[in-house]
Write a structure and sequence with these properties.
This protein has 269 residues and is an alpha+beta fold. The protein is built from ten helices and five strands; from the N terminus they run H-H-H-H-H-H-E-E-E-H-E-H-H-H-E. The chain has a five-stranded mixed sheet, sandwiched between helices. The longest helix is centred in the first third of the chain and has 42 residues.
Length: 269
């Protein structure tokens, strides 16, 4: 589309009388005066010699005239060198000054290069929400949820022959732990209160991780009870006893490592 703003005479006058235009005008006048002064000094200083050329022999006059022209040329070039020594540093400084950015421009460039912090924060929030939804969708496939009983909840899954060790499919604290317990109850996933084990699993594992080797014994005890409970629910017989004391290495239990308190007894929900 045509930009009629470019035809605005006031914009043209503004450019003509801008600071930059005035500086360039002063520079042009200064250069003209300096070169003109040098040329006048050269010519006025050699007037008599130039007039005497007509009285000299032809070959001598040509040589003398060449010397006069060379001297005048070199003198004017010297003046131009002086102009360049003054003008070039100014041009470089002016160019560098134009490249400087205001704080707002720096912030805008940072947003464009690194991304808007608000947008990045929103993306991270959406990623956390998606990860949370994926985690919650894995809870119905878990074999057991180990609880604290209220502060922590860790869902474990183990498929014999496909997994080297039980894997953490969900974990959370406080409100997230409550949501994990709620979903587990809806899908009839076994839950076991074992505070030391729940704390250790929550602290030392991430989603998708296999449990630490130091917790194999404790988790094996939990899974053995869960599998026995499934057999009892399906085929009947004697109901298995709830594990009484599921111990974990003290250095893996944040509570025990800090206070030296003994582990709590497990209770099946």
């Amino acid at each position: 589309m045509p930009n009629f703003g470019r035809l605005n005479p006031m914009s043209g006058l503004g450019n003509m009388f801008s600071k930059r235009a005035l500086v360039e005008l002063v520079k042009a006048i200064g250069k003209t005066v300096l070169v003109g002064t040098i040329a006048w000094m050269v010519i006025s200083g050699q007037t008599e010699q130039m007039l005497a050329l007509s009285a000299e022999p032809l070959h001598t006059g040509w040589a003398h005239m060449g010397d006069l022209l060379l001297t005048g040329f070199l003198t004017i070039v010297f003046g131009l060198v002086i102009i360049a020594l003054i003008d070039v540093p100014y041009v470089l400084w002016n160019y560098a000054d134009k490249l400087k950015m205001t704080r707002e421009e720096v912030r805008q460039e940072a947003k464009e290069s690194d991304g808007d912090p608000m947008v990045k924060a929103r993306i991270r929030q959406m990623q956390r929400e998606m990860a949370k939804r994926r985690m919650m969708s894995e809870i119905p496939t878990a074999d057991v949820v180990v609880t604290n009983p209220t502060h922590y909840a860790v869902a474990l899954k183990y498929t014999e022959g496909k997994m080297r060790a039980p894997t953490v499919v969900a974990k959370g604290a406080d409100e997230v732990a409550a949501k994990i317990r709620e979903i587990a109850a809806e899908h009839k996933v076994a839950m076991l209160e074992a505070p030391p084990l729940a704390r250790a699993l929550y602290r030392h594992t991430d989603l998708g991780d296999e449990i630490p080797a130091a917790l194999y014994t404790a988790v094996a005890e939990v899974l053995a009870y869960v599998f026995q409970l499934r057999t009892y629910s399906t085929h009947g017989g004697m109901k298995p006893a709830v594990p009484g004391d599921i111990a974990v290495p003290p250095e893996l239990d944040p509570h025990n490592a800090a206070s030296g308190a003994p582990g709590n007894n497990g209770t099946m929900q």
